[in-house]
Amino acid sequence: MTPATSFKTKRVAVFGLGGSGLATVRSLVAGGAEVTAFDDSSASVEKARAEGLPTGDLREADFSSFDSFVLAPGVPLTHPKPHWTVEKAKAAGIEIIGDIEIFVRERAAIAPGAPFVAITGTNGKSTTTALIAHVLREAGRDVQMGGNIGVAILDLDPPSETRVHVVECSSYQIDLAPGLDPTVGVMMNLSEDHLERHGTMENYAAIKRRLVARSGTAVVGTDDPLSAAMAKSLQADGVNVVAISENDAIDLAGARALRGAHNVQNASAALAVARALGVPDKVAHKALATFPGLAHRMEEIPTSGRVTFVNDSKATNADSAAKALASFPKVFWILGGKPKTGGIEALAPFFPKVEKAYLVGEASEAFAKTLGGHGVEHEFAGTVDKAVEMAAADAAKSTDKEPVVLFSPACASFDQFRNFEERGEAFRKAVLALKL
Fold it and tell me: What is the DSSP string of 235-253?
């Protein structure tokens, strides 16, 4: 844990008692802050209370008595409308921050030179975060990895001059971290996402830009127009920018967990970060081949048959699914779920790669119209396990040497699952249950 000593004696209100919220309360208490924690869920409040953490009803609190208000990243700050706690904090004129900002302030207070790598982007940030951490560990560094991936940032060990923090940051977290100033900031790409929380693409892009605007080195993808424009504007502002692309010359032939052009960009980002932190290129390149990959992100499910099953449940939008489709010559494609703005029309250039599509969840009817309009053979499966059965049976009849069943939903999971991890586990379970 990182005790928030920079908040010692401060009065702090915390709203949101999920995993990161509880970690925040523990950190503040350990650092000597006077905390009042609350959640709209009475069960979450009871859980915190049972742990011995300080709770109180913020609906009745005088917000002007607090020095800071810490908001969980999943709670609306601006759109579709500010949460009631945000309104109270604004009316009282107190700052509204998140757990990333607490870490940033603690780093400034106890180890301002501590190496800190922050990663964001619409797609690929989790893989890139894990890859960077892997490369640095292979180079012998003491690495702490977390944030929007796995472990809450304040549950990580404290910053120090000999320890590297590699932290994935969502747009929600960046929006609550005005002091964000990583040693190396990585902004991978931008495509339409989370507009229900940010209102417009301009707002979304501006929030992402904050992660790299004050970084010592800004590693920025330049394969989409918004990111390319961001790289130029950062250079104009005097920021040290390293541009990366899917077209960079990197040999990933031995790295099975890094297939596809999008992983060239991910690898390029990892190499740029390693270089900025003084890791020799030879050491970093060697580490790429031993990267094991991440669950639910282009994850190959091992089976005894000739059909390759790929779990890409993390593909929650069309842009992410495009990366997966581009990685194979032909696929039996399982997709669907809770649809996002724009649907899958943007994936039309990849439709010739689809042998057949299998539709699940809420998006089925809309996706069927798009696929049918482009002459793509498709079938309604309804559920992931049924889709796996249907796709596996068709793939087994294929004359391809290594037919691929690709689960890349291009949708959120919330119509049938709690999250993409649960959805990916359902795919894995269905694959392993097949009689091959």
Answer: HHTT--EEEE-TTS----T
- In the DSSP assignment, the letter for residue 112 is T
Contact 416, 423 (CB under 8 A): yes
**Whether the Cβ atoms of residue 346 and residue 374 lie closer than 8 Å to each other:** no
Nearest Cα residue to 156 out of 100, 110, 112, 108: 100
The reply to whether 121 sits in an annotated binding site is yes
Residue 34, SS3? Answer: strand
**Beta strand pairing status for 308-311 and 404-407?**
parallel
| Strand runs labelled E in 338-396 | 354-360, 378-382
In this structure, which amino acid lies at residue 432? L
Could you say which DSSP state residue 294 is in? B
pLDDT grade for 304, boundaries at 50, 70 and 90 = confident
DSSP tag of 339: -
For the stretch 53-64, pLDDT in tens is: 999 999 999 999
338 is an annotated ligand-binding site residue: no
- Residue 266 assigned as binding residue: no
Q: Domains in the chain, start-ordered, CATH in brackets?
A: 5-97 (3.40.50.720), 101-288 (3.40.1190.10), 299-432 (3.90.190.20)
HSE-up of 235 (CA within 13 Å, CB side)? Answer: 12
The reply, when asked if residue 127 is annotated as ligand binding, is yes
φ/ψ (deg, to 5) at 264: -65, -45
* Residue ranges with strand state E in 205-313: 217-221, 241-244, 299-301, 308-311
126 marked as binding residue: yes
Between CA 227 and CA 185 the distance in angstroms is 14
159 preceded by cis ω (within 30°)? Answer: no
pTM over 0.90? The answer is: no
Quick check: bond before 80 cis, omega within 30? yes
